Amino acid sequence: MTHPSFIHFTRGLKVLVSILCVLTMAASGAGVQSVMAASVAEQAADLNEEITFEDGSLTGPNGMDSATGNVVLDNTSMIQGVFSAYIPNVDSTYLQEDFAGTDDLYVSFYLKLISLPTGTVRLAQIMHEGKTLGNLILRADGALQLRHGSKPVGAETAPLTIGAIYRLALHQRQGADRNTVLEGYLAMQDEAFGEPFASTTDGNWKSPADRLRLGATDSTALDAAFDDITLGLELPTVSEPSPTPAPTNTLAAPTETPPPPTATPMVSTPTATPPPPTSTPRVSTPTEAAPSATPAVATATQAATAVASATSTSTQQSATAAVADPTNCASYSGPKRVFMDSQAWWTTTPGKTGTDHGHVHTSTCFPLHQTVSGIVPLDIRLTMHNNPGKLTSLTIYINTDSGGTIVARKVFNTALTCPVPGDCQFWVHLDADTTKAPYDGRQEWRIRPWINEPDGKTMVGSTAWQTYLANGKPKNDYRAYDLVQGKGWYTNAGYAVARLDSGFPFAPVSGSWTIKYRCESYEAPAVSECLVTVDPNFHTNNKGTILFQTTSSSESQRTLTINPAQFGPGAHKLVIRASVAQLSGSTNAGVLAIPFTVP
Question: How many domains does the chain have?
């Protein structure tokens, strides 16, 4: 998924290039009218927008072009991220986006119905020069109907569930001789779209689309919220919180050693799923809950009331944890698990004046490089250290050659927060449904906490850990070999990646232990520091026993031979940290912590 700020930059750049082309061709004698037509066609072909409202505005770079009536900017993490657009049970209230006429248009958006309408309301409307083309109406019973103008297309869906989160999409393509296309799609929250619930391929309209309206677009009141609106030239896949580079042979695991078991109260995470949205068969999501209107997880502020300093720790655990002690990997049944830890950092660069937003850990007992199938329960510990942001969601993707598939997700209706200075730990139980992935074989898990920081930007932690899926599907390996990564992403900075390519210590290590690793930056600037160390405590500025440290920008694979005996018998952690100093005066870092034992 392309990041919204990049999309708006490229849109502006393409328009500027088109204008320059017009002026140049006009000066050379070309017809301005024909050149302008080509320019408009180019802009239509480049239609690619993602509207998230995450800059805190209904309009502007991350919003729609305009809002009519009493559209409310909701900031309670109702759907995706923090902000969404809420139509508060009023009529003639909607968002509007205008664009150069396009022959082929896909529109998708998230919808959360707060209450049923008293009558039929049109909630999505594609237009051409003020005339209604493809549109979606919501019946009083909650069913959806696709229409062209006022003409129904296909059958209605089953009634939507109040409080559940859905993804809807419209596809409209103009044509001639009755070969136009109009399709409506519906899926639960973050499922991939299946077959359209209604469609036609024999229309005869010839008008391009040039406007979209969402909300109560007629005189019937609507009580619903909208979020993450996309306009493009193809049916969107399940969205991810940030751009994911093309697969490279990479690895992930972050830095802290699991603490002793805690006896603090656990917080439940619901797993019930609303009924399927349509009568059309589609992939089920038996374990992913739609967030309720009330918080399902206690807030971080509630959990951290005892936190008074950077050395204090507040912990919550989920009452639905798969085992009594989720830090004891041996207590899980099934394939062997390893306690993995990945971290994302955003800190002030020494000698600079950039922002410092601490870091976030993602830690769990994970069946690394094991064969799994069906539902895989994970108890995930999220640690916020000196992080002033709001943790709004936790998502598990499985990446395959066909893209990222969300297999479990938790949206926190009340964002998790932590006092600064301070450490807060939150345990979240998720049941990952691996049957959603389209392929078997070596596939990669991306576990991503999403944090909205006070500067209006976003920190995202991410993993890249593989398992072997065995769900009776075609085999199509995502990676050529096993590896692990710990990754940190920040707005306008991209990914910093710590990676272990070989030498993972599944068994106790003795004698000579050789690893292959690398530190990477997926975007400019290059890596500014690569650190390999054992048993650090970064929270107290203790870098541990440093095995390798360089400020070289080289991102090539390195080999390191380690003598484990120097660390003494017992449990230890090998830590790789990739740091990327930014021009803003802050440093983005990805950290991988790898547990090992010396006999």
Answer: 3
